[in-house]
HAT C-terminal dimerisation domain-containing protein
Amino acid sequence: MNPFGEATDLTQGEKIVTISSVVPSVLSLNHHLEKLKPQVRFLSSLVRSLQVSLKKRFGGIFINVKMATLTQDGTTAPFSDPVYLKAAALDPAFSLMWIDHHVLVSLEVKAEVRQHVKELILREAVETEQPTPCVDEEEQEILGQGEGLFAAYHKKKKKKDVGTTPALQLSHYLHIADGQNVLLFWAMNMKVLPSLFKVAIRVLDVPASRAPVERVFSHGGIILRPHRAQMSDRLLTNLVFCKCNAL
């Protein structure tokens, strides 16, 4: 049960990115149980029950990676939102490595899943991308006339186009992602991968579970004791904020 404990700690953290670990954790646990089946002798029913429960609870993830089929009744499977796939792929600690190691399908299907995840990220990157206005050389010369008496003596430096398409950024990201800390990675590469950065900050700030939120309310209950009944709302808010954001 150690892998289950590790997955619980990863998905219930407070000051770390948690949503990116959902898909790798679920698929890794399923792979762990799959390997245990031929090894256990007296607990085979427990292993099977755990695997059935895992696939039922996180059915949407298994459907999205083509390890399960859609339900016949037309209901939406739990955890079927594509945000879980995008978050896992945009965390350099996982990238797309979880597809190779823990998606138990054929190589052709793995390639389809990999392409599907890329398309999800690129689609959102294109939607969030805003075109920047371009200033031609004539306008630059006109605007530069008022920069000083000898402004014409200086060499005109053409602004280098550092922007790349979302597809090139994604390719570069997958090349450099190698287990780095997700927060440090995006802080250092926010200008190198601007389109992907916008997608990352949207999907990675989603908490994987409600445990951190419940802890906030617990801290509020501890601070607002009966002998502090006349504490103002503003003071309570500030105390809870300081308590939950202390280093």
